[in-house]
Write a structure and sequence with these properties.
The chain is an alpha/beta fold. It has 4 domains: about 120 residues, Alpha-helical ferredoxin (Fumarate Reductase Iron-sulfur Protein, Chain B, domain 2); about 45 residues, no CATH class; about 130 residues; about 110 residues, Rossmann fold (3-Layer(aba) Sandwich), CATH 3.40.50. It contains 25 helices and 8 strands. The protein has a 4-stranded parallel sheet. Helix 24 links the parallel strand 7 and strand 8. Helix 5 crosses helix 7 and helix 12 packs across helix 14. It is globular. The N terminus is likely disordered. The protein binds iron/sulfur cluster (SF4) (2 copies). The site of one iron/sulfur cluster has 14 residues, from helix 5, helix 6 and helix 7. It is an enzyme of class 1 (oxidoreductase). One of its GO terms (molecular function) is glycerol-3-phosphate dehydrogenase (quinone) activity. One of its GO terms (biological process) is anaerobic respiration.
Length: about 450
């Protein structure tokens, strides 16, 4: 692992730890934490660094920005006991403001909490609530749709269905619904008889999330093969959605149920010596940051401290860079790499660049530090679609300027946006590692 990456990760990790510590020291404990973060607001000295980092505020004149959504909103509540402003629903939960704040204000925690409170007061029959609940619970629908993948793909790709989704639910018809795989990752894993490796001391538990299971099993299969090639036993326990789309839509009760299941399941494996690895940077973000900020299940902290993004884990525990440096790809490829916002928050935005620069046959270009604009479910909302594309324009331009027509990113929805904006094929870094070392 390079010193640069170590330093980045350590710095961000220390900052995050101190932010969480500050927040925990100043906010009321456990249950109350989900409804009162007002003391955290006092750490804000109004520098507006968060506002200038916010991609939504840059394109949406109606959005007052993170400083208002966080500290100011809580101050207002303290002095006037006002309701949460509806503009909180326009925050995409990209969490860029978290990294921008020099004062450790727990902005995304405030936003998530405010959104949860706002959604509690929404009409459960409103079109916005129904649409957001559907988007937030994608995994439940995917479980049903993936039983008949070809039929579902046909129906969801149909122009009439897209038109109805937009008119009735407010889900944009501009995007292609992601196709379901004909065999889910979990079916593949069971069919091959689970992990091919058994090990007492090299064991990881894979949090694959819904998207890798139902839509891009090739990413999840690559992870299993890569880890097995380094001698790891890879367990794939039952799991629920990480909660990321639920946090983004204020569905905190749904998120709480999913998180509780995940914490209980994965903590048992941690007790047996497994570390937790994720192929999606938003999933690792949820388990290591959002769960401890929002929930207080018995083993939340234990799960958080044992969670890693998959490539981060290999770089920490194996000499992945050397393994990559000793090999060469048969087919030359030029890659345009986008670091997801949630990878930045975890200090992981340089790792793919550092790693693949060592790989013969590959040229890799960073397409800049802008947000892709889709932010999970944000870019799927009819009224946000144009903003989402406007935010993504900088990334699309850089991708077009880069050599080659293949994109690379760790986040499945950033991949969707990259493909949508450029027509490029988008790979996951794990697929490239598989090609190089397995
Ligand atoms: S999470 Fe992203 S969209 Fe929301 S306020 Fe922060 S920077 Fe803006
Ligand atoms: S960056 Fe932090 S300190 Fe500055 S305005 Fe935003 S919340 Fe306040």
């Amino acid at each position: 692992m390079s010193n640069d990456q170590n330093t980045d990760r350590d710095r961000l990790s220390n900052e995050r730890t101190s932010e969480v510590a500050t927040a925990e020291a100043t906010v009321p404990p456990s249950d109350e934490r989900t409804t009162d973060l007002r003391p955290g607001a006092d750490n804000c000295y109004k520098c507006t660094a968060c506002d200038t980092s916010c991609p939504v505020a840059a394109v949406d004149d109606e959005f007052p920005g993170p400083k208002f959504q966080g500290p100011e909103q809580w101050r207002l509540k303290r002095s006037e006991d006002t309701d949460i402003d509806e503009s909180i629903m326009s925050c995409s939960n990209c969490m860029r403001c978290d990294s921008a704040c020099p004062s450790g204000v727990p902005l995304s925690q405030m936003h998530n909490t405010a959104r949860g409170e706002y959604v509690e007061g929404m009409s459960k029959l409103s079109r916005e609530y129904v649409r957001n609940r559907i988007l937030a619970n994608y995994g439940r629908l995917a479980r049903i749709g993936s039983r008949v993948p070809r039929l579902t793909n046909f129906v969801m790709g149909n122009r009439v269905t897209k038109w109805l989704n937009e008119r009735l639910l407010g889900i944009t018809s501009e995007r292609e619904f992601p196709a379901f795989a004909t065999q889910t990752f979990r079916e593949w894993y069971d069919d091959r008889g689970g992990s091919k490796i058994e090990s007492e001391d090299r064991r990881v538990a894979y949090f694959h999330g819904d998207y890798s299971n139902f839509n891009t099993p090739e990413v999840a299969k690559a992870l299993v093969r890569v880890f097995e090639s380094f001698g790891y036993e890879v367990a794939v326990p039952e799991q629920r959605c990480s909660g990321t789309p639920m946090f983004a839509n204020g569905m905190l009760e749904d998120a709480r149920r999913a998180a509780k299941f995940n914490v209980e399941t994965f903590s048992e494996l941690v007790d047996e010596g497994y570390d937790i690895i994720c192929s999606c940077t938003s999933c690792s973000m949820a388990l290591r940051q959002e769960y401890p900020e929002l929930f207080d299940f018995e083993d939340t902290e234990q799960v958080a401290t044992h969670t890693y993004e998959a490539i981060e884990y290999l770089r920490l525990h194996e000499d992945l860079d050397e393994a990559i440096g000793e090999t060469e790809l048969e087919d030359e490829s030029a890659l345009a790499y986008h670091a997801p916002c949630h990878a930045r928050n975890q200090g992981l935005h340089r790792q793919a660049l550092e790693l693949f620069r060592e790989l013969d046959g590959v040229t890799i270009e960073d397409v800049g530090d802008s947000c892709s604009g889709i932010s999970g479910t944000y870019g799927w909302k009819e009224e946000k679609y144009d903003y989402s594309m406007e935010i993504g324009e900088e990334m699309f331009d850089h991708m077009r300027d880069a050599d080659g027509t293949t994109g690379l990113t760790e986040c499945p929805t950033c991949a969707m946006q990259m493909e949508h904006g450029t027509g490029y094929e988008i790979d996951h870094p794990l697929e490239l590692i598989e090609k190089a070392v397995v």
